[in-house]
Amino acid sequence: MTMNYGRKMELGRFSGFLCAIGLMAGLSAQLALAGDPQTIGELHPPVVASLGGQQIAVFFLKNNLKEQATGVHVPTAEIFYSALNATKPTLNYVWKVEGEQIASVFFFEHKSPARAGKSMFVLTKNKISHSHFEGDSYSVLELPLFKDGDQLSMQFFRGDPPEPEFQNCRDGLDLEDDIEVECAYKDAASIKQRLADLDAKMIAGLKLDQGSRQEPLKIEGDTANVACPSTDFSAFLAAFSERADVQKSFVQQPLKMVTTVAGDPEPEMEKRSLSGDELKFPIILDQAKREVQGLTLTVKEERGDHAVAILQKPDTDYVFEYRFVRGQCWRLEEVMDYSL
Questions:
Q1: Are residues 44 and 186 in the same domain?
Q2: Are 183 and 240 part of one and the same domain?
Q3: How many whole angstroms separate alpha carbon 23 and alpha carbon 58?
């Protein structure tokens, strides 16, 4: 099969970049003895990530001396990236890999408003062998891609909760019950299909709720004629963050506000209760303003009738948590400002 010219050029640039990284590593090891072991290996071949015409090379570097470390935890590998066409290659740390091996690396672009954006996914695999289970465990790590000025970046956000069904998914033999257990998410295709289904469900729920706004849901204590956007929290959050009228109708008063203030010797949390004119809207900026300011809004967790959304700016201490409670509809009951 004949490779087109553009693809040849891309691979040529990538190969040249890898040679530059290899040269850097080789020069740093010149003083080592010929018989010394390689301290850094490769857990998975490097991949190229792209977004909006920008590209980065992603590396999965493992510590070959992990077993010799005592008294301290050493991850199996660490993920780094660098601009593909950088004149002076630099490695940027992303996050750690705890799995024994990487089963797959793939990309998926979320379409739902609450999670819109492209991410790289790393599927790890661990061997399990004990008295209760014999087999493998699969887990998924999501690393969002975003533009940082005119550069493409990748970062692990602690506020991004992984899908619970993708974590510690077991595949093997349950020795206690003597039954075969099969993990439904042990390859890229099944995970991407599940992500697409979740995306479609969130979008459909949001459209359904938007279409039913002509029939407002009466909420206890509400005087404004504003419909409950949705009882699905992700869809509710998408509407809540975009519309000031929804925020005014579904904020519990008094609203609890917890702010981080300087203290001696440690920062302290100052608590207040706000109501009426003390509340300034919008409490959460809409998506367009968030993008201008480089802010990301994600669902941190949802448990029963309680949910938490997190607003943050990567590489800064700007972090807000918005805590909601559900009655007939969701309501914002507390804001936690962790910024200093």
A1: yes
A2: no
A3: 17
Cis peptide leading into residue 282 (ω within 30°): yes
- Measure the CA–CA gap between 170 and 128, rounded to whole angstroms: 9
Residues 148 and 253 both lie in one domain: no
- Which pair of tokens denotes residue 259? 């702010």
Distance CA 192, CA 265 (A): 47
* Conformation bin of residue 149: beta by default, left when phi > 0, alpha when psi is -120 to 50: left
Q: If you search the block for the tokens 């530059």, which residue do you land on? A: 20
Indicate if 182 and 229 belong to the same structural domain.
no
Q: Is residue 25 part of a domain?
A: no
Neighbours of 291 (CB within 10 A): 13
Domain that holds residue 195: 36-199
Judge residue 271's burial from the number of C-beta atoms within 10 Å of its C-beta, 0-12 exposed, 13-18 middle, 19 or more buried.
exposed
Cα distances (angstroms) measured from residue 21 to each of 18, 24, 91, 262: 5, 5, 9, 43
pLDDT of 129 above 70: yes
Do 72 and 146 lie in one domain? The reply is yes
Q: Are 318 and 295 in contact (CB under 8 A)?
A: yes
Q: Where are the alpha helices (DSSP H) in the chain?
A: 5-28, 188-211, 233-242, 244-249, 287-293
Q: List pLDDT tens digits, range 68-122.
A: 878 888 899 999 999 987 777 788 999 999 888 999 999 999 888 767 889 999 9
pLDDT tens-place string over residues 20-39: 454 344 433 333 444 556 78
Residue 202 structure tokens: 């969130």
Is the omega angle on the peptide bond into residue 37 within 30 degrees of 0, that is, cis? no
Residue 89 CA to residue 83 CA, distance in Å, equals 7
Residue from 298, 119, 293, 296 nearest 202 by CA = 298
